[in-house]
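FW: tagging you since you asked about this chain on Friday. Here's the raw sequence from the shared folder, copied in full. Didn't touch anything.
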Amino acid sequence: MKNLTDEQKLSSDLKLHDELHKNYGLITKLAIVCVRKNIPLIIENPFSEQHYLRKYWCLKPKIVDMNRRENGDYYIKPTQYWFINCEPKNNFIMEAQEYLEYKTVDEGDTVERSMISPQYASRFIREYIIDSE
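HL: got it, structure written out here
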């Protein structure tokens, strides 16, 4: 943005604000529908103190994973999870993890930055979502 005029920067800020407002509205509507219909819902989103949902949403995350590498992911990336109409199971998973090379992501690559390794996803599902039986 350093090469943009002030007007272009303000226009960009307004566009980002509109996108944030739209997404906040959609996630809140989804949560309302699930609460009304008693549908279990798990929401995953990046964690930071300045995160919009952390600061302004009335629901608090049930799990905050500060280092996904400890559970078999490529990234340290702090992540928060909301459990709506359900509770995390907290099953004990006792198995060796496959070592994964640490990855770094270019800031602009939002798809790659959002990816979770299959190992991390499997462990998360078995630890927090399905019954241990």
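FW: The chain has two domains: 1-38, 40-129.
HL: agreed, and The helical segments are 6-37, 52-56, 110-114, 118-129.
FW: great, closing this out.
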